Amino acid sequence: MCAQVVLAEDDAKQAELVRRYLEREHHQVVVVNDGRSALEEVRRLQPDLLVLDVMLPGVDGLDVCRILRRESDLPVLMLTARTEEDDLLLGLDLGADDYMTKPFSPRELAARVRTLLRRRRPATDTDRLLRVGAVTVDLDRHELFADGKKIACTPGEFRLIATMAAKPHRVFTRAQLLEQLHGIDQYITTRTIDTHVLNLRKKIEPEPRRPVRLLTVYGVGYKLTDA
């Protein structure tokens, strides 16, 4: 999947690292180092994605996101060194589609970019098949596969794995996953989420006691990786 990406990052070393990694994924990358230039390039190029640092000189990333959301539905992946929950939620409230906190893995950033671009494309039949490494979720047939084998799972387990498979490598809080189970499990708590995760690991992990696919991010929640 080739796409045109505007990268707004004022740290030259960080910008070069991200640019090289995205170009390795065959994307065309235009780098700018301030908020005003980000707005100008997005308006001029009409790119497929904006990777946006929060701490930009002049017009900061939050203001850039706020302005662009009045003009388009361009996917925005926000990069931030801020770890306070209020700051991260503010970015999402302003219209960012996803965010990553620094320092981050370039490989994970590339995966997030692929996910956002996939959501950007018009829906096709293949978009109903979610593949994350050896795990496949067939949304139409309501089927789960791991290592090529069909896996029996409950409706709650399926909704949970489908939610995470749609956004691989993204960390979901227990509260976010609870929302996905509304109407499926009559009595749901954070303990319900933990139980579903434990059961899914038994079904999709090569070694359930040493998970490499459905991972715990301590103090935050869970994520599905392509291991």
UniProtKB/TrEMBL annotation:
The modification 4-aspartylphosphate is found at residue 53. Residues 127-226 form the OmpR/PhoB-type domain. CDD domains: REC_OmpR, trans_reg_C. Pfam families: Response_reg, Trans_reg_C. Residues 127-226 bind DNA. Coiled coil: none annotated. The keyword DNA-binding applies. Residues 4-117 form the Response regulatory domain. Keywords: DNA-binding, Phosphoprotein, Transcription, Transcription regulation. It comes from the Bacteria. Gene3D superfamilies: 3.40.50.2300, 6.10.250.690, Winged helix-like DNA-binding domain superfamily/Winged helix DNA-binding domain (1.10.10.10). PROSITE patterns: OMPR_PHOB, RESPONSE_REGULATORY. PANTHER family: DNA-BINDING DUAL TRANSCRIPTIONAL REGULATOR OMPR, REGULATOR OF RPOS. This is Response regulator transcription factor. It comes from Kribbella lupini.
